[in-house]
C-alpha cells in the first residue's frame, strides 16, 4: 500500500491538515490497522521535498501550529501516473513464508501436511470473519473483504494442489538428496 500516493489522492479535492488526512486515510485504507501519525507527516514531508505537495496555510493552535497541505500540479501528474500504472502481483511475502515452511518441512523430514492443514484452518477462520463483514459491513468494508476473501480462496486452491505433490517431492528428495 502506498501511503504517500493515497495521501495525494486524498489531497486532490482540497487542502487538508495532517490530522484530517490521517483520519481519512484510516477510514478508507487502513482496514483496521490505523496508520501512525508519524508516517503521515513523514510521507507529507517527502512529498513536499519531491514537489508533489506544498504547505498552503498555517493555523496557530494550543500546541504546534496546524499546517494545511495541498497537492501541486506535479502531485496531480504523479497521482495520474500512479493510478494509470497497473499493479504487478507481489506474492513474495506470502510465498516466502508458507512456501518456505513446506520446503523446510520436506527437507527436515517433518510433516508439511500438518502445516498445510493448520494454514487451511487459519484461512477458513478468517474467511468466516470476512463473510460477516461482507454481509453487515459498510460498502467500503465489503469491498475490502471481497479483495481479501478472493486472495484467501486462491491460497486455499494452492494448499489443495500442494497436498498431492508432497509425497512425490519427498520421494524425489530421497532419491536425490540436496
Our estimate of the beta-strand percent is 5-15%
Please list the strands of the largest sheet in the order they lie side by side.
1-3-2
Largest sheet: 3 strands, antiparallel
What structural class do you assign from the helix and strand content?
Answer: mainly alpha
Element string (H = helix, E = strand): HEHHEEHHHH
Whole-number count of domains:
2
Q: Regions with pLDDT < 50 over 5+ consecutive residues?
A: none
How many runs of DSSP E, i.e. beta strands?
3
Number of separate helices: 7
Average residue-wise pLDDT: 87
CA radius of gyration is 23 Å
Share of helical residues = 55-70%
How widely separated are the two ends?
38 Å
Description:
The longest helix is centred in the last third of the chain and has 37 residues, at 139-175. The protein has a 3-stranded antiparallel β-sheet with strand order 1-3-2. It contains 7 helices and 3 strands. It starts with a helix and ends with a helix. The model has no long low-confidence stretch (mean pLDDT 87). It is mainly alpha-helical. The chain has 2 domains: 3-84, Arc Repressor Mutant, subunit A; 92-175, no CATH class.
Brief write-up:
By secondary structure, this protein is mainly α.
Task: Please supply descriptive tags for the structure shown above.
8% strand; mainly alpha; 7 helices; 3-stranded antiparallel beta sheet; WH-like_DNA-bd_sf; 178 residues; Arc Repressor Mutant, subunit A; 2 domains
Amino acid at each position: 500500500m502506498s501511503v504517500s500516493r493515497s495521501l495525494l489522492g486524498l489531497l486532490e479535492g482540497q487542502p487538508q491538515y495532517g490530522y484530517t488526512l490521517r483520519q481519512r486515510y484510516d477510514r478508507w485504507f487502513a482496514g483496521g490497522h490505523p496508520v501512525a501519525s508519524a508516517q503521515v507527516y513523514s510521507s507529507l514531508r517527502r512529498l513536499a521535498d519531491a514537489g508533489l505537495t506544498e504547505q498552503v496555510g498555517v493555523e496557530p493552535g494550543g500546541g504546534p501550529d496546524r499546517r494545511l497541505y495541498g497537492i501541486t500540479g506535479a502531485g496531480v501528474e504523479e497521482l495520474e501516473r500512479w493510478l494509470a500504472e497497473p499493479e504487478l502481483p507481489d506474492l513474495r511475502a506470502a510465498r516466502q513464508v508458507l512456501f518456505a515452511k513446506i520446503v523446510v518441512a520436506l527437507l527436515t523430514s517433518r510433516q508439511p501436511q500438518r502445516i498445510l492443514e493448520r494454514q487451511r484452518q487459519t484461512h477458513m477462520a478468517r474467511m468466516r470473519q470476512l463473510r460477516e463483514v461482507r454481509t453487515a459491513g459498510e460498502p467500503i468494508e465489503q469491498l475490502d473483504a471481497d479483495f481479501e476473501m478472493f486472495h484467501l480462496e486462491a491460497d486455499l486452491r494452492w494448499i489443495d494442489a500442494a497436498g498431492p505433490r508432497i509425497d512425490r517431492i519427498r520421494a524425489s528428495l530421497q532419491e536425490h538428496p540436496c
